[in-house]
Fold:
Amino acid sequence: MNEALILSGDEEKSIKEIIRNIQKEFNLPIDKFSQDVLISQIDLLLTLCNRYYKRQFITRKKPTNDILSKFELLFHKYFYSGFMEENKNPSVRYFADKLNVSPNYLSDVLRSLTGQNAQQHIHEKLIEKAKELLTSMHLSIGEIAHQLGFEYPQSFSKLLKSKTDSTPVEFRASFN
Structure:
């Protein structure tokens, strides 16, 4: 996976220093402040790691934008290749594997760029396609659900209702 956090020299020094402080404190005789000092150092370590992780989404716009572009292309290929009908709904894991990142990293990148995590992004794309199919084709709801990779039309209806406040029949009727 190519999602390793790359630290500057100063960032790496600060992380190593905190780890040394934790190790020193851990090896000292226990007193009534030992636990508080360890917790404070661990909290600082986690806060800095979070800072450095989140910073990459600000400073590495090109690589993260590339992930979004590749994700969009993969989704398009997944849908139009007929692969969706054979393999059901696309999963975050599927796209993350294809992009050589973890599902959590993919979600973080998409959230930083679009405000939606990977699953929300997939649902949005499915809803866009569902709307297109419901308004432009005379396929049955079951055929559309199957074409979108849903095993059961009820699952498709439930997703559409949750995102548009309309059932597929209601949505289609609003365009006739």
Observations:
- The chain has a mean pLDDT of 84.
- The two ends are 48 Å apart (CA to CA).
- The chain is about 75% helix and 0% strand.
- The chain has two domains: 9-59, 62-173.
